[in-house]
Amino acid sequence: MLFCGNLDAMTSLALKTALIFARKSCPDLTKKIRYIIDELDNLNINWQIDRETLDTHALDIDSSQHDKPDFMICIGGDGSMLHAAQHAISNQIPLLGINHGRIGFLTEQVGADHTKLSNILPDDFIVEPRLILETWVKRDGHLVFQGYCLNETCLTRQPHQHVLEISLKLDQKEVCQFHGDGVIIATPTGSTAYALSAGGPIISPDIQAISIVPICPHKLSSRPIIINQSTEIELTITHFHSHNASLVFDSQPPKEFAKDEQLIIKASKKVIQLIHPNSYSHFQKLSQKLLWEQRDNA
């Protein structure tokens, strides 16, 4: 077992009880859950199943007798991982993603035809801390909402609206106004998601930075900005705009963002810990998933 990044407070990690999470309902995914349960039993690792997962997959299984989970297994795609991340962040337990989706930037290929779970657990893995964002919505100095996200916070125009005008402050100093469809504030993890589609840069997950990416800006000079993770970001809708906007955290349902509200974003003091096989390479995975060009063997 290895630790990547700065986890000074952690010297050992014993994985004894897993919480299994699988959001979507399909027969193949239900089979994958049972396969993972069998693998955990063979490894003498206790397990529990998330209540929503039990109901979604109609699993008649009692796992309540085990201890409090000390890590989480999410079976699904990157969207499921973003949902599972909310629980992992709240409880500060590591998260292992097992791919059952289309892309799988955040998940591992585990199964009968891929890497076996026994090649990762109980101790042949690395733990990688990832930066997460903490977001506050305030109105007249009062807190309206507070939350965390692994990928991005996105402020966008609502359907059928005109161009948004958004004011950006960094460390309480006015920087600029963005005219366009919105702005994405992304972590290094989120730099390969929506932010990448909007023209943002790919940021290595071991770099403590945040990217600010305009969405379809009116001016070509409105380019993505990379800032230090200690910088406080504040976004507001300028008084020239007559409508509210939409605020989205990762893949959670959108919230309405009013003209008289302030959106404040900072890197959280918390991190999320992702479990990978010892053979894991972030850039090898990017090369595979993004189909980067490789020289053919001559």
Keywords:
Tumour Suppressor Smad4; Rossmann fold; 298 residues; 7-stranded mixed sheet; 5 helices; globular; single chain; 6-stranded antiparallel sheet; alpha+beta
- The helix content, as a percent range, equals 10-25%
Examine the coordinates and then state which fold CATH places here, giving the name of the CATH topology of the largest domain.
Tumour Suppressor Smad4
Sheet having the most strands: 7 strands, mixed
Mean pLDDT: 89
Any idea what the shape is?
Answer: globular
- Number of structurally distinct domains: 2
Determine Rg (CA atoms, Å). 21 Å
As residue ranges, the low-confidence spans are 6-11
Q: Report the total helices.
A: 5
Q: What distance lies between the first and last C-alpha atoms, to the nearest angstrom? A: 38 Å
Question: Strand-and-helix sequence, N→C?
Answer: EEHEHEHEEEEEEEHEEEEEEH
- CATH homologous superfamily name of the largest domain? Probable inorganic polyphosphate/atp-NAD kinase, domain 2
Describe the protein.
The longest helix has 16 residues, at 27-42. The relative contact order is 0.16. The chain is of the alpha+beta class and 298 residues long. Helix content is 16%, strand content 38%. The chain has two domains: 2-124 and 278-289, Rossmann fold; 132-269, Probable inorganic polyphosphate/atp-NAD kinase, domain 2 (Tumour Suppressor Smad4).
